[in-house]
Amino acid sequence: MPRQDGKVAIVTGGARGIGFEVVRHMARLGAHVIIGGRNEEEGLAAVRKIREEHKEAEVEFIKLDLASLQSIRQFVQRFREQDLQLNILVNNAGVMLVPEGRTEDGFEQHFGVNYLGHFLLTWLLLDILKTSGKWGHFSRVVNVSSSAHRIGEIRLNDLNSNQCYSAHAAYCQSKLAQLLFSSHLHQELQRGGFPLSSCAVDPGIVDTALYRHLWMPLLLAHNVIAHLLFRTPSEGAATVLYSALSPELEGENGGGFWANGHREMTTPLTFEPQLQLSLWQASLQLLGLQ
Questions:
Q1: Of the listed 165, 171, 211, 242, which one is catalytic?
Q2: How far apart are CA 272 and CA 254, in angstroms?
Q3: How confident is the model over 37-58, as pLDDT tens digits?
């Protein structure tokens, strides 16, 4: 990847796993990177580790809890106070297969953290992303999704899984929602003529802490086979970095869904304009943005 001197990036969940590897590589390439994360101790430790590896690295931590709309707004306010541009936003943080529960604002956890939290974060930063981009040097929004979106279903009348809860179904719905959001946002940006693109990425099956909520027998099996069959966080970060930094995805070549270093087709649901619009409007209403 080319040098990123002068560019500013935000990476949610950047203190460990795939997010940490993304932050580490971006900082090594000269970008100023802000880690957004819930655990301050973990975030500051990640900053120290990267600075020990690269003494000139510009990396910092700002607290961000995607399960709290107030925390998201506070994060954006703290970022705005620095008067920085924003060239890259990587929506990476997430939860998987967590027990049934609600966020601070009453949303189902997968839908609230993986999707709605990132929707609000992106919405509040859009103006900076738009003005930071230039023709030939677009700003980019990268949404880290999953192949699980292929079996996801958007239940517009029950987005918070109140009627029947399945951790697996809720997770898959949140990942499909990310793709629908990413695609609709990219189309809106193109129609508006803004130097900003939006894409979604599948990092593959990666050995990270996401699997800690597996049923115990499955967790034990996971611990045995993960180091043999799963990708490392560094390998999982490769397509994320490619989508965020590669000159090959500049301008009209941006957008879409990326996996294994190339653009891939997704499920027909992802391309349904009415479903994209309905979810977009429902999200705005749930977040009080209309």
A1: 171
A2: 19
A3: 999 999 999 999 999 999 999 9
Q: How confident is the model at residue 205 (pLDDT cuts 50, 70, 90)?
A: low
**For residue 225, what pLDDT band results from cuts at 50, 70 and 90?**
low
Q: pLDDT tens digits for 250-277?
A: 988 999 998 888 898 888 888 899 999 9
How many residues in the chain? 290
Would you call 242 a catalytic residue per the annotation?
no
- The residue among 155, 133, 152, 118 whose CA lies nearest residue 8 is 133
140: which strand partners?
A: 88, 197
* pLDDT for the residue numbered 220: 45
In whole angstroms, what is the distance from residue 127 CA to residue 125 CA? 6
The span from the CA of 109 to the CA of 17, in Å, is: 20
